[in-house]
Amino acid sequence: MRGRMRPGVRRRVVRGIAAGLLGLLLAGCATFPDAGPRDWRAKLEGAGEIGGPPSMQEPAPPGGQNGGQGGQPPQSGGQQRGPSGCDDPDPQVVATCLNPVGAITVLPDGRSALVAERTTGRVLRVQRGSAPQLVATVPVDASGGGGLTGLVLSPSYDEDQLVYAYASTSQDNRVVRLATGEPPKPVLTGIPRGPRNNGGALGVDADGSLLVATGDAGAASPPATSLAGKLLRIDTLGHPATGNPDPGSPILSSGLQAPQGVCTDKVSRNTWVTDRADAQDVLYHVAPGPLPAPAWTWPSRPGVAGCMAQPGVLAVAQTGAASLFVLHPGDKGTFVGNPETVLPGTYGRLSATALGPDGMLWLGTVNKLPGGKPVSSDDRAIRIQPPSGGGQSRA
User: Fold this and answer.
1) What is the dihedral of CA 305, 45, 374, 137, to 10 degrees?
2) Which residues lie closer than 8 Å to 233 by C-beta, 6 or more apart?
3) In this structure, are residues 288 and 267 in contact, taking their beta carbons and an 8 Å threshold?
4) Which of 54-63, 74-83, 356-365 ranks highest by mean pLDDT?
């Protein structure tokens, strides 16, 4: 008589035979080209949200050589390799060895952008892997906080290929129009300039009008009819836009001192302006007429600069704090959740911001200006994944 296999042993044998047959079947009908040893690491907190293309980078150690205002993130495997000359190994750096960046506007392909150099007046087309190409040169006088500080595509760029810039000259501050192969053409001139606060910013609102944020040119209280210290709303010919409080005036709102950025969320139609006031840095939620109380204030004066707005996210570049400050807008100029400070010290002193058509955020640096700590590849244009929207309501 043959012995009978015990039930527990029989089940183990059956499972072993089944596993073996499954392995033979898989080996015969599938290939695994990615098989082999890998250096897997746990996902970093926040990676993929603000860090750009997926990477295996680890955070820099506190106080390490990558800290400070010109530091570079460490490379894979914990090896820290900074830029060498104009060669920057960071995959998010699009262009290097620029002069301080006053403004950025992203081209429709999402992979290239126009960069305005604040002190030289040059407008360059930049794309990763290609040398910057000179598009235009705008005559500027960068004294008193001026220079080339605003740049936007025409609301009908696909048809007219025009670009608008905000520039300081020795006589005034002005909006000019740039067309390929032509000298800059004045659109709105005579904006007062003075010993300080000559910079400004450009944006496009949800209706396709140009928004022009102007400094007060050092005047304590510019007259109500002066174009200094105002948020102007004009059409592409420089005329007052339809729907302004006074149909004959380009003035939409008043009360600015040294504006640095203007941005509009095209979905909510909310417009925001960053400003460096005498006592603090501020963020305004724009409404027609005199500016209301600030929606957000920074008593520490981190040097607010350009801004980017999209549903659930408002990002403000900070020059002095060398970081990006992120808020989550709610209804009617309020905010939800908690603010975040991201990219501290990663790229140094941030200035310009622009949102690309593909949802990527572009940043520019001004590390070569006084107070910066430039690395060899500065100044730079950077393209990253923007912070995510949302957030929990405050109690």
Assistant:
1) -50
2) 205, 209, 210, 211, 212, 240, 241, 243, 244, 250, 251, 252
3) no
4) 356-365
Lowest mean pLDDT among 2-16, 336-350, 358-372: 2-16
Q: How confident is the model over 46-75, as a mean pLDDT?
A: 36
Query: Residue 291's pLDDT band (boundaries 50, 70, 90)?
Result: very high
- Number of C-alpha atoms within 13 angstroms, CB side, residue 152? 25
Q: Are 317 and 324 in contact (CB under 8 A)?
A: yes
| Nearest-angstrom CA–CA distance, 232 and 255 | 12
CA gyration radius, the chain: 26
Q: Tell me, what amino acid is at 102? A: G
Q: Beta strand pairing status for 173-178 and 271-276?
A: unpaired
* Residue position matching structure tokens 């990002």: 315
Q: Which of the two residues, 33 and 109, has the higher pLDDT score?
A: 109
- Is the confidence at residue 30, as pLDDT, over 90? no
Give me the phi and psi of 197, to 5 degrees please.
55, 45
115-166: per-residue pLDDT in tens?
999 999 999 999 999 999 999 999 999 999 999 999 999 999 999 999 999 9
Mean per-residue pLDDT, 55-77: 36
Per-residue buried b or exposed e for 300-338, using 16+ beta carbons within 10 Å of the residue's own CB: ebbbbbbbbbbebbbbbbbbbbbbbbbbbbeeebebebe
Contact 385, 343 (CB under 8 A): no
Which DSSP string corresponds to 327-344?
Answer: E-B-STT-B-S--EEEST
- Tell me the residue type at 9: V
Average pLDDT of span 258-262: 98
Identify which of 87, 56, 86, 88 has the alpha carbon closest to the alpha carbon of residue 72.
88
Residue 235's pLDDT band, with cuts at 50, 70 and 90, is very high
What percent helix, strand, coil does the chain show, rounded to 5?
Answer: 10, 35, 55
pLDDT of residue 79: 52
CB 261 within 8 A of CB 317: yes
What is the predicted pLDDT for the residue at 389? 62
The count of other CB atoms within 10 Å of the CB of residue 75 is 16
pLDDT at position 68 over 70? no
Cα–Cα distance list, 60 to 49, 66, 76, 81, 347 (Å): 18, 6, 11, 12, 13
